[in-house]
Amino acid sequence: MRFFPLALFATAFTASIVLAQYQPGVNNHVTLLGRLDRYGSYSNIWGYTDGRGNEYALLGADAGLSIINITNPTQPVEVAFVPGPNSSWREIKTYSHYAYVVSEGTSPSQYTGIQVVDLSKLPNAAPFSSVRWPNVTANSARAHSVAVDDAGYLYIQGGTATAGTGGSSGGIRIFSLVDPAKPAPVGFYNARYVHDSFTRNNILFNSNIQDRGRVDVLDIADRSRPRLLTSIIYPRGSSHNSGTTVDGNYLITTDEANGYTVKFWDVRALWDNDPANDGNIRLAAEYLSNPGTIAHNVHVRGQYAFLSHYEEGVRVLDVTDPTDPAEVGYYDTPSDWGVYPYFPSGNFVVSDIPTGLYVFRFDSARAGTVQGKVTNRATGEAVAGATLHFPEADKKIQTDNNGGYRLRTSVGLHRVVIQAFSFRPDTSQINLASGAPLQHDRALQSLLSPVNEDPPASEGLPTQFHLSASYPNPFRIAANAALAVIRYQLPRRREAEPVTLRIYDVLGRQVATLVDGEIQASGFYRVAWDGRDQQGALVRNGIYFYQLRSGNFHAVHKLVVVR
Question: Which residues constitute the domain of residue 426?
């Protein structure tokens, strides 16, 4: 999450200034058109287009549903507000000219259940009513999320959707929309809690967040009797939301946990009319915006997947090849909940939890691939663990053990900034195109001090600074008393100054301190390292660096550790 000027997020603020230029780390190929912030906090968002082409954002707020005319995207105007139960969760979907709103709130009780909002009278009015289902009351009817399919069925999940049915009270309940103003219950599935669902043809995908990495796949040809076909079960999961590519061949899933990837599943086996193959679903690709982030919701339009992130704003992926998705656009806001990308104008809207509505334009971009190898200019050796920063793409990646890297991102100009411990930073520029990968190799200049022979021994004090090569090198460590010896000398005619001698790994992280700011006079010194880090554990195999500092003197040498 980036930090923005406070004035940008003032309450009841409307932005009409269109950004004419992308700002690395803030946006790329996504342009801000307008903003509106009128309430305390926000949840999910959906959209509606009337018969005259007017476009409306349906924005969940803490006390109800805000209906905002965005036909002029630079001047969003709220035209109606539908009060609802007080809740920080509010979910919305549409069918025909009706919106269906659910929340986890139960007060005021007259608004609980499914709020059915008639949008046909916009912008002048938005009348609504509440519908409840069996085994709930006005004080207990709540749902975590809502979904609608093209066949005319509505689905509510979580909360008390399946209360009193003998299974999980937070399963999934299905309603017929033959009369869209009066959803009628027709079936349910209560084997486990369902956080959200997505329907493709007669297949229902349930995100079972309480079962960690699990998506139940159900046959709903008969909506009154959902039938489990198979389950997608995977480690490190917190199944939150899903959606398929346009052709239905790949399912994209999000997990509501820090650092969990967005996953692309090959589900073609579900459409081959052979039930014996229904379990043959395989993981085809994974995507993560940046380490430690959470992808919240995904929606697909054409060749692009739009992903809302809690701390990374909205990200747009080119999923032309779902086995190799590429992020091609983004706009970073404080904390996105949801995104709706289906307006005929091509504009899309985002709900940000603390700052409200954003209206965006995606400036369509294709994907390209850059790859290469980072080496030591002096020796030709691979530089493992080097960090490559692509500011325009807002991406940081690292080289592998062979110095290699690969990134799929938007075509166009990109700066490439490479940093590696003990090497001079390297900045270059590429012009990325679609098609064959661009090979972009870089050779870094080492900052390591030359390892010379020790100065001639003298009977008196040394006349120059010197850091000697460690011995032995490579250093084979063990649980016994094996030691690597590091020698250095401080010259005469020098005032006593603080001296530090530290060990670092290839990422520049401090591993151990051998001399910690001690005031040392001129002379010859010998320090031993037992291969242990600051916590007393033996370090792993690999390349390490020892660095000596005293006054203006600075020297670094390499030490190889084997076990």
Answer: 368-444
